[in-house]
């Protein structure tokens, strides 16, 4: 190899690809537009109270009984896990003017949802430690990729200081949502219409979602015989789960039933006021005593969502590998959870796509070295 493999995106897929390439002795550079690593993995603590724990505002669970890639990696990296808390009754909220119903929780013993102690960020941090820190370049936004007649790739990126850098590459792995590639990166020569259409049709996982976590000094709902699990027909949160650490503080996280466009019109303050009112209705006056309410609306994150993502998911069948063809075949490779058809939307899908991308890259490198 004369030039590095460029990985665009420092989320779970990008970091896993970088780790595997480094392990194989293949030079790579990871270019990330954000000022942090992790992508859609976002674990936050309460400002000035890190002792309360880290809480996931992005992906939260994995299921080791049928997700072997992440289960093996978590074990390899020696990360601490905890099972989703499920002791006690659930609450079902059917009507705005009536109190919620309490019901026994029915859960299959074969379907255990597992969380990472310290949040999924612990997986990101552990992966980052397996690669040289200098290969990850933050606030580096890839804008253009050129392929010359000799088959050489040049990657152009804007830097935080307003300057532009150009990097030669042997191959490019896109470890970010395909819609962002289609909408934000210019290709010369152009990609095939078939490939562009395929990328534009792939909904970005979580992009229309928002997530909220209410943090308390203890999980007081457990004292009431409640699991923390809620199903609601009236919202604003349609699902709520216990997000407490193993010890100490308590936390509840919820998924919204309010569409992205409606949340934008309401504004964050009104949305969070509705959340607080719902929690008080469900759990009583003690729900007023949140140490903080952490909130992330992924639909307003320009590094995640495009306008097409505001609509609810419609085309799950589009998930899987984009069809790279023509002059770009064997030059660009796709990773990311949307490009794994079997586990799309899961951490498992992100990891499997990264391993597949690295497998393809190694084959390209070996062929190039033989030429």
Automatic annotation (TrEMBL):
One of its GO terms (molecular function) is oxidoreductase activity. InterPro entries: Amino_oxidase, FAD/NAD-bd_sf, Flavin_MAO. Residues 113-358 form the Amine oxidase domain. It comes from the Bacteria. Pfam families: Amino_oxidase, NAD_binding_8. Belongs to the flavin monoamine oxidase family. This is Amine oxidase. It comes from Virgibacillus phasianinus.
């Amino acid at each position: 190899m004369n030039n590095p493999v460029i990985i665009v995106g420092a989320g779970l897929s990008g970091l896993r690809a970088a780790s595997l390439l480094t392990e194989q002795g293949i030079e790579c550079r990871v270019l990330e537009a954000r000022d942090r690593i992790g992508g859609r993995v976002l674990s936050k603590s309460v400002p000035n109270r890190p002792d309360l724990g880290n809480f996931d505002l992005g992906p939260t669970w994995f299921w080791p009984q049928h997700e072997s890639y992440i289960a093996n990696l978590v074990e390899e990296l020696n990360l601490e896990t905890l099972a989703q808390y499920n002791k006690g009754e659930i609450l079902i909220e059917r009507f705005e003017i009536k109190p919620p119903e309490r019901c026994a929780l029915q859960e299959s013993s074969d379907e255990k949802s597992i969380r990472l102690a310290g949040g999924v960020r612990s997986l990101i941090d552990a992966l980052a430690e397996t690669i040289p820190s200098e290969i990850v370049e933050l606030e580096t936004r890839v804008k253009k990729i050129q392929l010359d007649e000799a088959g050489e790739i040049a990657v152009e990126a804007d830097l935080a200081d307003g300057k532009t850098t150009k990097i030669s590459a042997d191959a490019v792995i896109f470890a970010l949502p395909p819609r962002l590639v289609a909408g934000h990166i210019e290709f010369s020569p152009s990609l095939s219409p078939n490939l562009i259409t395929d990328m534009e049709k792939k909904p970005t996982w979580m992009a229309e979602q928002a997530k909220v976590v209410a943090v308390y000094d203890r999980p007081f709902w457990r004292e009431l015989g409640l699991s923390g699990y809620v199903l609601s027909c009236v919202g604003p949160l349609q699902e709520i789960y216990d997000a407490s650490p193993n010890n100490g503080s308590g936390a509840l996280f919820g998924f919204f039933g309010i569409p992205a466009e409606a949340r934008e019109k309401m504004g964050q303050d009104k949305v969070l006021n509705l959340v607080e009112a719902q929690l008080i209705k469900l759990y009583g006056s003690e729900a007023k005593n949140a140490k903080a309410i952490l909130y992330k609306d992924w639909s307003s994150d320009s590094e995640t969502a495009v306008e097409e993502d505001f609509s609810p998911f419609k085309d799950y069948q589009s998930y899987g590998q984009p069809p790279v063809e023509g002059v770009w075949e064997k030059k660009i490779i796709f990773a990311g959870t949307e490009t794994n058809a079997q586990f799309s939307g899961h951490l498992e899908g992100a990891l499997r796509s990264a391993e597949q991308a690295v497998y393809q890259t190694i084959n390209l490198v070996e062929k190039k070295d033989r030429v």
